[in-house]
Structure formats: C-alpha cells, structure tokens
C-alpha cells in the first residue's frame, strides 16, 4: 500500500508540474509583445475615451532589481497616457532613492516624493496619491509587474463600460526564473466572495473621484489597507467591472504575500479581520468576522439572525420509509432553531411502511408535521409549487428526502444569509457518506448546461483559491437543499413546471439572479446527501433519457447567455472539468 501511495503522489506532482508548464507557455503566448502591439495598433484609434492613468506605487526598501523591473513594466506600456506616482517611505537603502531620481530625470511622466520619516504603507500610499492628477488611479506594488497591454485593456473596458468606477483583472505569480504560475481567474463582482477574502487582488483601477471621496487609505490597516479601501469603495458604488485577462504578475519572494508561506505578513490577516468587522459596523449589519482557522487568508462572517421567522421545510417523497425516517429524525433531533414546520409531499407512495411512518410522525409530531397527497405524476417543479401553497412560514427550505442533518445550527446559519435583502437562494455543502463533496456550488456551462463543482473531492480540501471552504456567490445552488424567503419565491413565480425533472432548481436560481439577487453557497453548513436513493439514477431507460432531452433543451433555450458566460466563473476556465482548471485550448 505504501508503494502505491508514493507512486500516486509522484503522479500527482508530475501532473501539477505539467499544468504549471502548460500555463507558463499559455500566458507567454498571450503576452507576446508582437501580438500585443498588433492588437494595440488595430484598436487604439477607435477608442474615443483615452484617459490618463495615475499609477500609484508606495516604495519601501525593495530589491533594486525588482524595483527597476516594476518601473520598466510601466514605461513599456503600449498605452502611453500615464503618470507613475512613486513615494519612498524613507528606505534605509540609499540606492532606492537614487533609482527613483534617475527614472524621474529620464521621463517627465514619472513623479517621485521622498518621505522624511517612515509612516508605513498606508501613509506612504497616500503620499503617492497626492501626486496623482489622472482620471483613473492604478494601484501597484513596488516589486510586481504590469503586462505590456495592461493599461490598454483598461482603456478598452472603459470605452465599453464608462460607468464603471472600479475595475479589476485576473493575475498570476512569477518566480525568480521568470516562470509564471498560480493564475487566479476571477469571477465578476461577487459581494459575498469579497467578504470571505480579497479576491479582487490586483490589478485594481478606480476613478480618482471615488478614491478622493474615500479619503485614500486609512492608517491602522497596514498589510490589508487595499482590502479596507475596496470594502469601503464597494459600499459607494455597484458599478464594478472585471477584465478576465491576466494583466498583473505578483513577484514570488520570501517577503511577499505571494510567497508560498502564509507567515510572510501575518499582521495583514489581523488588519483584514479589523477591516471586515468595520465594514459590518458601517453597513449596520449585526455579526462578526472570524478567521477560517485552517485556511490562511480566509474569513467567515457570522451574521446575527435579526429577521427570524417560521421555516417551512418542504420534502417531496415517494416510499423509501427508512431513508425518509433518517431525514425526519435528524431534523427533529438535531435542529436547534425550533420555529419550523415539516411539509411532506406524498407523490404516489404505495408501500405500507411509508404510511406507517406517516401515521407515527403525525401522532408524535402533529404540531409541526403535515403530510399532503400530491397525486400527479412526478414533476419536481410542480411539487415545489404545491409545497409552497401549503407553507405557512416566512422562509421556505426545500429539502430532498435523502438528506441527513449532522449539526444543530444548520437552519440558523442558512437563515442568517437568507434574511439579507440582497440574497436569493442559500445553498450548503452536501456530502456523500464517505465525506466527499456532492455539492459545493453550481457553475453554468459545465457539461453543456450546468454541473456541481468539486464533486467527489474530500471535504477537507480547500479547492481552487479556497473555494470549497469559503463563502461564495454562484449562479446557482442545488435544489436538494435550498433556503429562500417565501416572498422571493413568489416574486419569481416559483418553479417552472415545464422543467419536470432536471434543471428546475438551476432555473429557479437564475430567475433570482436575473432579478438582481445573489445566490450564496455557505460552506459551514454540511449535510449528508444520499443522492438519488429515492428516485434512482437518471437515464436508465428510454423514457428517462427522453425527459432529460426535453428538460435540457428547455433550459438551454431559456438561459443560453448564462450557459455561455457564467458571471461567477471565468471564460479562461474549462467547462469540461469541475475543479476550475484552465482551458488550455481557449484562445
């Protein structure tokens, strides 16, 4: 066994190396200067808005080599309308100031201020901001690199979306060999992601009038001063754009937060937590931000339930008394939140033990348990709508009959998110009995329509940039366990009954998304899901396959735009895998 495990590890490492080499070549192909120059010449004259960018760089004792290369990456920008605003925070190495003066003498677009005392990064960044006169501010670190097309891509975006006040791009890391690795392909604006980590990262561009309105960086948030700025900025604007291209390279070295060690800047985590708790207070949102202890740089928000209400747990079922008994018993025995009702929908059961179970629960728990006969042929959407008609609660909790509750605060946690005005559907982490993942969010486009991400990965894994363990917005969550305010269910007219078996839960979530609500995956709620134990696996006969084809075509006909461009995924990622792998063949 030991030999097999060692061989498996070697194969995994080999696969990782191949992936790294493939990405390194992929990004080099896309940042080839000859190609980028051709794209620039072909497009620049058609862009009517050509603003000046003020690139703000706080400098403190970096490697002279890295500093020079960072400045050169600005000088070699294809788009020429920029000014580089450099503030040195009294670096002890005298060569730093010499380099800054050298560049300022060579190019009048380069401005330098030399602080007489060290004030740390927030104060130093504000000193650099004082030099800025452009319409847009670009934030850059003193040892990182902009791609040659960075500013040009922002100009293109601004011409297409001039209303955007804040714009961010994808990014990666570069080691001392010049090898590119660890690309972060980000979603579009995802407010719940932003409360679990600073997923925007680099490169950030903001309108100067917004930065002025914010008053720049705040002292006391050093290490996460950029996170604090972004949290405050996103409270003032929802015009937030994303360019799904790598336009920024972090340097990997021992003093950088891009380094593999999480101990590079531990004070930054303390500052980030402070910034998050400040944000909750500013937003008048009762709750507290906490560290995710096994995920460096990750945070969780524990919201207080300020809008408690009755929860209607709607469970469709047919027979399978033992499975249903496990689900009901786990709900009743473990749930700490007591203001709920269970609405069981009997969809043509005919097994004696099922009716015996219903009679027992009616006798023992008749105050919270009701069973209604749904005598029509199986139609999941129709069942959900029928259940809604019987619900007396303020919140609907749609639950499969093959779910098992495993911790008592599950309803409280789901409600803490469902109560929020901006939230649509709330989904959770569903596990197979062996503790591998069945559901941790749904991405549109996977498999031609939609699929669960990270399926069959062990729950202890972090996933792509901590996605498994982090609060995330997704276009959809699974209907096996969804909480939603009853008012929202009614606002989108419930479930589409033309989708009888498949895609109806995703369709429901997309209707919420189209109305402007954000669907949320909550990783701290874990439930066991004995998937398909009740109805069996799909596609086992001609009738099931034909129904699948019907649902598939209806769904694609309604939501092709989201299928082709899921806003919470990234066009550089593959739709043929469920673990956020780069689509190496996409141009």
What profile does the largest beta sheet have?
A: 9 strands, mixed
Strand proportion, as a percent range, falls in 15-25%
* Quaternary organisation of the protein chains: single chain
Helix count equals: 17
Say how many strands there are: 23
Mean pLDDT: 93
In the predicted model, the low-confidence regions spanning at least 5 consecutive residues are: 1-14
What structural class do you assign from the helix and strand content? alpha/beta
List keywords for this structure.
587 residues, alpha/beta, 9-stranded mixed β-sheet, 5-stranded mixed β-sheet, 17 helices, 36% helix, elongated, disordered N terminus
Task: Explain what you see.
- With 587 residues, the chain is α/β, with parallel strands linked by helices.
- The chain contains 17 helices and 23 strands.
- The chain has helices spanning 2-30, 33-43, 64-75, 94-106, 120-129, 150-160, 191-194, 208-214, 225-236, 266-282, 321-334, 352-365, 380-390, 410-418, 486-491, 504-514, 542-564, and strands at 53-59, 82-88, 110-114, 136-139, 145-146, 166-174, 180-184, 204-207, 240-251, 287-291, 299-303, 311-317, 340-346, 369-373, 395-399, 403-405, 423-431, 437-439, 442-444, 450-452, 472-473, 481-485, 518-529.
- Strands 1, 2, 3, 4, 5, 6, 7, 8 and 9 form a nine-stranded mixed sheet that branches.
- A hairpin with a 5-residue loop joins β17 (423-431) and β18.
Topology:
Blueprint: H1 2-30, H2 33-43, E1 53-59, H3 64-75, E2 82-88, H4 94-106, E3 110-114, H5 120-129, E4 136-139, E5 145-146, H6 150-160, E6 166-174, E7 180-184, H7 191-194, E8 204-207, H8 208-214, H9 225-236, E9 240-251, H10 266-282, E10 287-291, E11 299-303, E12 311-317, H11 321-334, E13 340-346, H12 352-365, E14 369-373, H13 380-390, E15 395-399, E16 403-405, H14 410-418, E17 423-431, E18 437-439, E19 442-444, E20 450-452, E21 472-473, E22 481-485, H15 486-491, H16 504-514, E23 518-529, H17 542-564
Parallel strand pairs: 1-2, 1-4, 2-3, 6-9, 12-13, 12-15, 13-14, 17-23
Antiparallel strand pairs: 4-8, 5-9, 6-7, 6-8, 10-11, 15-22, 16-23, 17-18, 19-20, 21-23
Helix pairs in contact: 3-4, 9-10
């Amino acid at each position: 066994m030991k030999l097999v495990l060692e061989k498996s590890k070697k194969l995994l490492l080999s696969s990782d190396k191949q992936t790294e080499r493939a990405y390194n070549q992929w990004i080099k192909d896309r940042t080839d200067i000859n190609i980028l120059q051709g794209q620039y010449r072909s497009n620049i004259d058609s862009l009517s808005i050509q603003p000046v960018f003020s690139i703000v760089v706080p400098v403190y004792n970096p490697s002279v080599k890295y500093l020079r290369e960072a400045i050169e990456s600005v000088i070699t920008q294809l788009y020429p309308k920029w000014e580089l605003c450099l503030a040195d925070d009294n670096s002890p190495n005298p060569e730093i100031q010499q380099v800054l003066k050298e560049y300022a003498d060579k190019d009048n677009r380069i401005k330098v201020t030399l602080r007489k005392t060290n004030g740390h990064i927030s104060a130093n960044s504000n000193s650099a901001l004082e030099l800025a006169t452009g319409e847009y501010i670009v934030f850059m670190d003193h040892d990182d690199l902009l791609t040659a097309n960075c500013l040009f891509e922002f100009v293109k975006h601004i011409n297409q979306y001039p209303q955007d006040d804040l714009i961010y791009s994808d990014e990666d890391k570069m080691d001392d060999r010049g090898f590119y690795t660890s690309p972060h392909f980000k979603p579009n604006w995802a407010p719940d992601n932003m409360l679990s980590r600073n997923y925007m990262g680099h490169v950030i561009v903001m309108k100067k009038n917004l930065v002025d309105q914010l008053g720049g960086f705040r002292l006391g948030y050093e290490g996460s001063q950029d996170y604090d700025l972004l949290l405050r900025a996103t409270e003032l604007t929802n015009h937030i754009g994303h360019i799904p291209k790598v336009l920024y390279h972090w340097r990997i070295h021992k003093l950088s937060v891009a380094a593999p060690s999480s101990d590079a800047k531990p004070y930054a985590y303390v500052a980030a937590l402070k910034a998050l708790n400040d944000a909750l207070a500013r937003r008048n949102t009762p709750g507290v931000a906490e560290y995710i202890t096994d995920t460096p740089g990750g945070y969780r928000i524990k919201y207080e339930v300020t809008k408690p209400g009755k929860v209607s747990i709607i469970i469709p079922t047919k027979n399978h008394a033992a499975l249903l008994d496990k689900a009901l018993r786990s709900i009743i025995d473990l749930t700490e939140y007591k203001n709920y009702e269970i609405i069981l929908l009997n969809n043509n059961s005919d097994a004696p033990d099922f009716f015996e179970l219903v009679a027992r629960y009616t006798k023992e728990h008749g105050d919270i348990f009701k069973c209604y006969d749904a005598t029509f042929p199986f139609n999941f959407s129709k069942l959900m709508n029928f259940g809604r008609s019987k619900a007396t609660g303020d919140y609907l909790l749609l639950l499969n009959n093959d779910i098992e509750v495993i911790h008592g605060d599950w309803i409280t946690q789901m409600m803490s998110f469902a109560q929020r005005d901006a939230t649509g559907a709330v989904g959770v982490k569903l596990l197979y009995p062996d503790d591998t993942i069945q559901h941790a969010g749904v991405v549109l486009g996977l498999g031609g329509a939609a699929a669960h991400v990270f399926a069959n990965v062990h729950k202890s894994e972090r996933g792509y940039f901590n996605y498994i363990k982090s609060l995330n917005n997704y276009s959809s969550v699974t209907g096996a366990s969804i909480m939603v305010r009853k008012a929202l269910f009614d606002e989108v007219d419930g479930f589409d009954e033309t989708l009888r078996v498949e895609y109806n839960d995703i369709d429901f979530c997309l209707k919420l998304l189209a109305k402007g609500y954000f669907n949320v995956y909550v990783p701290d709620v874990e439930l066991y899901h004995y998937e398909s134990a009740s109805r069996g696996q799909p596609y086992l006969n001609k009738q099931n396959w034909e129904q699948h084809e019907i649902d598939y075509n209806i769904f694609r006909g309604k939501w092709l735009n989201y299928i082709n461009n899921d806003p919470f995924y990234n066009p550089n990622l593959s739709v043929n895998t469920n673990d956020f792998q780069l689509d190496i063949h996409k141009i």
